[in-house]
Amino acid sequence: MLKKCSIIWDQVRIKTPLVHCITNYVTVNDVANIILAGGASPAMVENPSEAGDFAGLASVLYFNLGTLTREQEAAMLEGARAAGEKGVPVVIDPVACGVIARKNQVISQIEELSSLACIKGNGAEIKSLAGIKAEARGVDSLDWGEGLEDACRSLARSKQTVVAATGAVDVVADSQHMALIKNGTELYALITGAGCMAGGVVAACIGANPEQPWLASVTGLLAFNIAGERAALASGHNPGTFRSLLCDQLYGLGGADIAAAARIEWLS
Q1: CA-to-CA dists, residue 187 to 106, 134, 147, 213, 237, angstroms
Q2: Buried b / exposed e across 203-235, counting CB within 10 Å, b at 16+?
Q3: The CATH number of the domain where 100 resides is what?
Q4: Which of 194, 96, 182 is nearest to 141 (CA)?
Q5: Which DSSP category does 18 fall into?
Q6: pLDDT values of the chain reduced to their tens digit, one per residue, 268 residues
Q7: In degrees rounded to 5, what are phi and psi of residue 9?
Q8: Structural domain range at position 130
Q9: How many domains does the chain have?
Q10: Which of 158, 169, 232, 264 could form a disulfide with 185 if both were Cys (CB 3.0 to 4.6 A apart)?
């Protein structure tokens, strides 16, 4: 499995997938830069009159509901409709879905129009979508992770998609497989947008390998977390320096580095 992840990561730079992003305005620049650092090509197209046409040209769509405006909502629906018609995979980050009911309505509309390749969220968001009570403060999860594996598996089976939950240990599941990723750093909690950036990297990997969305999602989180560990080691406990080094470390990461540094548990 790990060898396949290494190959998928190298394929991102070979294929340079076009990642059509509609993401929140707090982290839009960070998401674009991290996708570039990973070897893919980001495009932040959120005008409703353009999003549908552009979605048909993209390798993958990445929708982040963090600061959802009416224009973004309309653009996401236009993009999802085109993605459904063209068979383009969609990755969705359901930010704050457990505390803002409108987010769930938009997610349901996107699901009706397209086929979701991955739902990527924090533990509280994933539990909420699975119908399990979870603790959250705004966009931040206060959940300690108990029951997260079951929530991921349940949601993956009910939605027939990949579910990736980030936390102290990341959980990535589909209807048949599960992986626990133990790489990462506590410095993610000291910068804005770590989850958004992780979602962009996952989308890039799915864009490069849409036939294997579960392994592609695992690959994206492995790459992002290994880069984070290396950036934390180089930056010390300095979040500003860490943020800059995160892009640098992801840019220099190869498939062989993933194979060498991954701390992962494979479950069936």
Answers
A1: 31, 23, 24, 27, 7
A2: bbbbbbbbebbbbbbbbbbbbbbbbbbbbbeeb
A3: 3.40.1190.20
A4: 96
A5: E
A6: 899 999 999 999 999 999 999 999 999 999 999 999 999 999 999 999 999 999 999 999 999 999 999 999 999 999 999 999 999 999 999 997 877 888 899 999 999 999 899 999 999 899 989 988 655 444 444 445 578 999 999 999 999 999 999 999 999 999 999 999 999 999 999 999 999 999 999 999 999 999 999 999 999 999 999 999 999 999 999 999 999 999 999 999 999 999 999 999 999 6
A7: -65, -40
A8: 2-267
A9: 1
A10: 232
Place of tokens 């040209």: 57
Residues present in the chain in total: 268
Classify residue 48 by burial, with Cβ atoms within 10 Å: 0-12, 13-18, 19+. Answer: middle
Identify the residue whose tokens are 């209807």: 175
158 near 197, Cβ under 8 Å? no
* CB-based contact 167:143 (threshold 8 Å): yes
